[in-house]
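User: Could you go from structure to sequence for me? I need the amino acid at each position, not a summary. Structure tokens:
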């Protein structure tokens, strides 16, 4: 699943209401600002089924808004098809990575390259911690990590 001559990326965290919707929104804005959004299929999902249909955490939405970014994403769980259609699946922590690799191993035609989004961070912060039980400052930290990582990822894959 890619736009003609393009690529596709799925951002994943545990619940798809904090970290991955922020990453998706940040990447979409970067791709738009760079004039390459038409070359990308961009989405996000959860390893769990806890929040399906929910809007992102209000603190995450407020953080994005502060940076001039909007999202209308609704939480969804990663599906088998995602492993066969997305080129890249970028997740936030070791637990996401384990869950995704386990699912991918049970799918014959899995083509997605599964990586930690933090592996693209020039500041080498490998793990993007869940801010759910934290403060607004923790959401801001997630946002900043996503900006650094998405920028590096987009530069490497444009």
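Assistant: Here is the amino acid at each position, in order:
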């Amino acid at each position: 699943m890619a736009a003609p001559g393009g690529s596709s990326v799925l951002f994943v965290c545990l619940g798809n209401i904090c970290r991955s919707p922020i990453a998706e929104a940040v990447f979409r804005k970067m791709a738009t600002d760079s004039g390459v959004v038409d070359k990308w299929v961009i989405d996000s999902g959860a390893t769990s089924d806890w929040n399906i249909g929910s809007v992102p955490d209000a603190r995450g939405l407020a953080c994005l808004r502060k940076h001039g970014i909007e999202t209308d994403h609704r939480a969804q769980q990663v599906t088998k098809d995602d492993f066969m259609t997305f080129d890249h699946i970028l997740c936030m922590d070791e637990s996401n990575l384990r869950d995704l690799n386990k699912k991918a191993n049970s799918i014959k035609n899995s083509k997605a390259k599964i990586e930690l989004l933090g592996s693209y961070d020039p500041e080498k912060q490998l793990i993007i911690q869940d801010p759910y039980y934290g403060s607004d400052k923790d959401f801001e930290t997630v946002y900043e990590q996503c900006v650094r990582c998405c920028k590096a990822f987009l530069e490497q894959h444009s």
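One structural detail worth keeping in mind: The longest strand covers residues 7-13.
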